[in-house]
């Protein structure tokens, strides 16, 4: 049976604060990965002339972001909090036994 999503079918029992915090933590992780990738880009474009464009300034900032002590500690905190919040939301889901069974079957078949 195919279920069609309709805005009136939304689950109103969700805790919006947990969803917001999880979404915010995902954004922080995406930003960290973006800065990491652009920080690695400085090694690729170091042979080219670095003008004062926005991209070159962003790459320089990203490379200094990689060695920042605050980033190293904050990243660990964000990842741990994300796993904790995801575990809480997993416990609140109604079909978590089905999800666990699905992943166990997926691992057995491989």
- Helices and strands, in order, run as HHHH
The oligomeric state of the chains shown is single chain
Rg over CA atoms, rounded to whole Å, is 21 Å
- What structural class do helix, strand and pairing data support? mainly alpha
The overall strand count is: 0
> Percent range for helical residues?
over 70%
Layout of secondary structure:
Elements: H1 16-44, H2 54-66, H3 69-92, H4 96-109
Helix pairs in contact: 1-2, 1-3
Q: Could you write a compact summary of the structure shown?
A:
It contains 4 helices and no strands.
Structural commentary:
There is one protein chain. The chain has 110 residues and is mainly α. It has helices at residues 16-44, 54-66, 69-92, 96-109. The chain starts with 15 loop residues before the first helix and ends with a helix.
Main traits of this protein?
110 residues; 73% helix; mainly alpha; 0% strand
């Amino acid at each position: 049976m195919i279920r069609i999503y309709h805005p009136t079918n939304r689950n109103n029992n969700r805790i919006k604060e947990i969803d917001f915090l999880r979404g915010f933590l995902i954004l922080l992780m995406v930003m960290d990965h973006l800065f990491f990738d652009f920080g690695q880009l400085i090694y690729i474009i170091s042979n080219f002339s670095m003008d004062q464009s926005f991209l070159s300034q962003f790459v320089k900032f990203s490379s200094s972001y990689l060695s920042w002590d605050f980033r190293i500690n904050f990243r660990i905190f964000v990842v741990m909090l994300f796993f904790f919040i995801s575990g809480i939301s997993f416990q609140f889901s109604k079909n978590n036994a089905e999800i666990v069974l699905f992943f166990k079957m997926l691992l057995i078949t491989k």
